[in-house]
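Lecture notes, unit on binding sites. The following record was shown on slide 14. It pairs a sequence with fe (iii) ion.
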Amino acid sequence: MRVLPIPCLSDNYAYLLIDPETNEAAIVDPSEPEPVLQAVAENLGRNGDLKVVAIFATHHHHDHVGGNEEVATRLGIKKVYGYASDNGRIPRQSEFLEEGSTFTLGSLQVRILAIPGHTLGAIAYVVTREPSDPVVFTGDTLFVGGCGRIFEGDPPMMHASLQKLAHLEPRTQVYCGHEYTESNLRFATHVEPSNQAVRRAIESARKRREAGLPTVPSTIGDELAFNPFLRANSPEIRSTLGIEPVASGAEALGAIRRAKDSFK
Ligand code: ZN
Ligand code: FE
């Protein structure tokens, strides 16, 4: 499968997901129409029989669904996927997903994880097609080196959602909703200064950004190594932030999230 990041707005990513076998494609989180339509047009040029048949929404926020209406109209897209309870908040939604829902995009298998916390209807799309590495679209729940703000849920909910993602195969490629990597990793190294994986990630993100490239994808294995929100049990993070060793993972996650909210 092919995944093309499409930079939108100031720091959002929409994605063009293509099944190479059937040339069926989906747009993940079209923030705004123009860059998405342009990316589709460029790929039509290279691949005349590309059929964009679906929009995948990770959650209802405007910077993720703002392009749904126009993109669906202009490309004749009928299927707009989102979580069932986001009904009415995702423009043109036609498919109402739950935890464990499955469907196909051409030869690609798609499976839904409910990952509430940032919003109550946040979902991840796990896309597989052997022998490719699996891919997950995480919206604003798991970022490279960070996690989203907890707007509609609470820390235990966000912790459970992040743990669900953490248990995907380590080689799973992570495509998230925003380019926040460098600031996330500044926080990561502040809370866990001896973590060498964080240092290496900072270096590689800096090079990619200097070259004008996105920092996505990372992998679940990478995130387990450097993302403080998947490392709530790290003794160093706990001691930096004054989190008791006996505190639960959910309590620690809440404390790490609060520290990040006020980190400059
Ligand atoms: Zn959001
Ligand atoms: Fe967002």
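Take-home: Residues 61 and 105 are 24 Å apart (CA to CA).
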